[in-house]
């Protein structure tokens, strides 16, 4: 895939992040462990925040948030 910035010589170009893996609907019973995963492609560093009922989720005993960073240059 060619970067939209590849034709711009010597300039810095930032493109809006794109979700390359979207969330999937999951059915479960109360108390069961569930894993939600998303993947984001971006030309700059991005932060992903998770929310439940309009409240930001923090890493805790009830919620485990894992981040995997892979840098890909265009």
Helix content: under 10%
The chain-level mean pLDDT equals 80
Low-confidence stretches: none
Shape: elongated
Number of DSSP helices?
0
Calculate the terminal CA-CA distance, rounded to whole Å: 9 Å
Radius of gyration of CA atoms, rounded to a whole number: 17 Å
Q: What portion of the residues fall into strands of 2 or more residues?
A: 5-15%
Q: Give the strand order, joined by hyphens, for the main sheet.
A: 1-2
Strands, count: 4
Helix-strand makeup class: mainly beta
Main pleated sheet: 2 strands, antiparallel
Taken in chain order, the helices and strands follow as: EEEE
The structural domain count equals 1
InterPro entries: Ig-like_dom (IPR007110), Ig-like_dom_sf (IPR036179), Ig-like_fold (IPR013783), Ig_I-set (IPR013098)
Pfam families: I-set
Domain Ig-like: 17-74
Protein name: Ig-like domain-containing protein
Structural notes for this entry:
This is Ig-like domain-containing protein. There is one protein chain. This protein has 74 residues and is mainly beta. The chain has one domain. 0% of the residues lie in helices and 15% in strands. It has a two-stranded antiparallel ribbon. Strands 3-4 form a two-stranded antiparallel sheet. The N and C termini lie close together (9 Å).
């Amino acid at each position: 895939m060619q970067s939209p910035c590849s034709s711009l010589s010597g300039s810095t170009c930032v493109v809006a992040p794109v979700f390359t893996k979207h969330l999937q609907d999951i059915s479960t019973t109360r108390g069961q462990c569930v894993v939600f995963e998303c993947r984001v492609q971006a030309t700059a560093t991005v932060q992903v925040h998770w929310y439940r009922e309009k409240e930001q989720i923090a890493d805790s005993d009830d919620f485990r948030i894992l981040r995997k960073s892979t840098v890909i240059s265009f």
